[in-house]
């Protein structure tokens, strides 16, 4: 496998950074320690410019090639961890109770740092490579915050690429697809108000447990009976809170969940039907419902030409038969979608081998994937900016 030789030499150092990030997980925008460490390293590598505080705690490094050029490519990693109690005995396990790197963002950050070190050292390209380290991928829309702070215009970024570890995909392999690859993630929050009372005199009350249960069931008819069976959508109610004891009908209930899809038309259809079902069902039983439907991350859509380009770079690194180009989309969300709404680019899965699932308390990014992912970044920048 043609791993870039000098990247292979960097593996232990990159793994060391990764373990340090893993031991010190930070959530959402509070990635102060991680961002400071990233910025220090980018300065030490000799980046031409290092900008901090973009999107609150995002960091950007600018690396100009040996040859001048107009082309600017953005490479993006995410820095934040998750509110999960780690369940491993790793020597570098989380030192922070209730927080851990369970999505591999420690590995993403370390690999992009490794690529930055290599690129700043060699500068074997024409134009500018911009390395982007964003906060708050896990629900905080850190990518959007960096865009709103001018990320793409300020650095003249023309194309953007992102990479994510993929458990179950063997180490040394990549997977990608053109078009929609990850789902939009909208949130559903329903507050029900009925009439509380004695469980033995239900006819004097309006039972919000019954109304909520009917809403949960009716919502399942949306995917089953409103969405084209050849399209993808998910409606999951994941929280249902009501009542405190066994003989009191509760006056209030609260339900929360998520709605996901891979196409704008389906996304708006699902929202419309959720509204109708919630309002209609509540009215049918004499309760009132307040629905807060909040748009989350957009559908992540890989642009066709940049997908082909990223796949060809991946094949150069991993070999012809190690890049799956028709990988099915998933219904998870990813805020790199905001960057792909603004610029052509692509998002690629990096094989992480046999490991616990993403967001599992025993997940640990696989260090064996470091040379593969780092080489991908290096090769991608050098190829996109070949002079
Ligand atoms: Ni992630």
How would you sum up this structure, described in words?
The chain contains ten helices and 16 strands. The protein is an alpha/beta fold. The protein is elongated. It has two domains: 5-181 and 299-384, Aminopeptidase (3-Layer(aba) Sandwich); 184-294, Alpha-Beta Plaits (2-Layer Sandwich), CATH 3.30.70. Helix 2 runs parallel beside helix 3 (105-122). The site of nickel (II) ion has 4 residues, from loops.
Compact summary:
This protein is an alpha/beta fold and 387 residues long.
Mean pLDDT: 97
Shape: elongated
CATH class label of the largest domain? Alpha Beta
Q: Can you name the CATH architecture of the largest domain? A: 3-Layer(aba) Sandwich
Examine the coordinates and then state which fold CATH places here, giving the name of the CATH topology of the largest domain. Answer: Aminopeptidase
Bound small molecules, by name, code or SMILES, are:
nickel (II) ion
The stretches of 5 or more residues where confidence is low (pLDDT under 50) are: none
CATH homologous superfamily designation of the largest domain: Zn peptidases
Number of domains: 2
Strand content: 25-35%
- Number of β-strand runs: 16
Structural class: alpha/beta
Biggest β-sheet strands, sense, barrel:
8 strands, mixed
N→C terminal distance: 25 Å
Number of helices: 10
Radius of gyration: 23 Å
